[in-house]
Amino acid sequence: MAKKDKGPGCLMYLFFILFLVCLAAWFLFSNGLNFKTLLVYGPSQYAANIWHFHDDYYCRANNSLELFEDILPAGAIDKKEGIKPIATLKSGQRFKLKGYRNREYVQWVAAKIADGPDMVYGYFMIPEKISIPTFWGTINRIQGFLDSSQEPFKNAYFSEIPRDATKNYRQSRLSELKKKLATAVDLKEETDPAKMQQIKESKDFEIIEEISSDNTIYYCPKRDYEKAINLYEAYLGNGFDSQYLQVREGYDPATEGYWKESVFLRIVDSWYFKLFAAFVLFGLLRRIFRGRKQKDNPPEPEPDPRSQKEPTNLETIPQDKIVSLTLSPEMTVGEFKEHFQNTLGPSIKVYTTVNTRRAAKDKSPLSSLRDIKGMYGNIPIDRNFTVSQAEHFFEEMGIGIQVMKLDGKGLAPNGAKLIEF
Questions:
Q1: Which are the contacts of 68, defined by CB distance < 8 A and separation ≥ 6?
Q2: Residues 6+ away with beta carbon under 8 Å from 223
Q3: Which of 121, 128, 60, 130 is nearest to 89 (CA)?
Q4: Is 367 helix (H, G, I), strand (E, B) or coil?
Q5: Among residues 221, 183, 229, which one has the least CA distance to residue 202?
Q6: Angle at the Cα of 118 (from 168 to 183), degrees rounded to 5?
Q7: In 10 A of CB 24, how many CB atoms?
């Protein structure tokens, strides 16, 4: 008999939920905690990027595109209004897609370009509304780990640069960097694992991690390390975008320098800062949630001790068998234990709650016990109570106790009477 198809199992559902959680966390850190976008483009673009599940892409202009400092009214772009673009991208030049904003009939695209050693952030207008698949582009990038055949998106105005093209450009810059390092510093290469470890532990050399791999390391004397890192930044660090997104003809990084990100922006854009910000936001949300919960469910006012009724069923008990414990909110657990022993004989253990067996601290006040019901004042107790009756009596008051033997070693029998101690 053929097996009946039961559909996806529980494991598949769990995998799907885990995937969604990881994807949501990735988008949170890439957009929700992308404070650099907030500082550079402002809160409107920051909110739009979160809404669009945005991801940055290297793109190529298919037409001439005029970059403006901010989004403008459509009529203000006319040169007669005196508003000039801060830069113009020619067809074929590269830019980095940093987001987009929809208007009713047109679309403004946030872009990042390099103008000499400076980075320029601005917007260019698309005279129609086009599809910019930032979300599915991100999915394609994730799928790209398994399938590299994903097609980059394109439209009449610009198109995504294939990842392989950017990778090849990086590789060419890396080759140039190694040649430059070979002449500027005492650059060495090592592939033997044992020697690689020796160099790692050496006090005379420094590994250039940025261009090394698990199988091959490049290193130099410590005195040359700073010079090597500066060259790396010029070719593959901040200087990579200065070259890749350059719009100025005849730009020479050797004489003009390259864009260097400020320390403040590096800190804001670091994962350490984002993790710190995530914990702070989580703490604030938790406090807000607790505040709302307390507002919706205010704690009951503590009863006035003078209005408390004494325990019932004591009228028929001979008065010489009744004793009283005087309790107050300020009385500590240690004082309560001592008062119980002096009045009734046996020692006791006191717990933080009625249903747990976690000992309360002697210095804690009775009011700190979670289940306490405010039964303060003179509490009459029948000395003929058995141990179990006494423990239940205090449980009704919200105080978890256990009566101990006279020697304090072990629990007293449940049937033993308090008067016997």
A1: 77, 83, 85, 86, 122, 123, 124, 125
A2: none
A3: 60
A4: helix
A5: 221
A6: 55
A7: 11
CA atoms within 13 A on the CB side of 5: 2
Q: 159-169: string of b/e by CB count within 10 Å (b at 16+)?
A: ebbebeebeeb
Distance, in Å, from the CA atom of 64 to the CA atom of 229, rounded to the nearest integer, reads 36
Handedness of CA 117, 121, 122, 128 (dihedral sign): positive
Q: Is residue 326 predicted with pLDDT exceeding 90?
A: no
Contact 159, 62 (CB under 8 A): yes
Lowest mean pLDDT among 69-83, 184-198, 202-216, 392-406: 69-83
Reading the block at residue 350, the tokens are 């006191």
Query: Any idea what the Cα angle at residue 322 is, between residues 321 and 325, rounded to 5°?
Result: 140
Residue 176 makes CB contacts below 8 A (sequence gap 6+) with 235
For residue range 178-228, what is the model confidence (pLDDT) as tens digits?
999 999 999 999 999 999 999 999 999 999 999 999 999 999 999 999 999
- pLDDT above 70: residue 297: no
Integer angstrom CA distances of residue 146 from 22, 56, 143, 150? 18, 21, 6, 10
Distances in Å between the Cα of 157 and the Cα atoms of 129, 192, 219, 227 are: 11, 50, 45, 41
Find where tokens 């483009």 sit: 41
Give the span between the Cα atoms of 361 and 237, in whole angstroms.
57
- For the CA atoms of the chain, what is the radius of gyration? 37
Give tens-digit pLDDT for 341-368.
888 888 889 998 888 888 888 998 888 8
Closest to 167 measured CA to CA, from 58, 34, 23: 58
DSSP character at residue 69? S
CA distance 89 to 339: 86
Distance CA 132, CA 156 (A): 12
Q: What distance in Å separates the CA atoms of residue 96 and residue 182, rounded to the nearest whole number?
A: 32
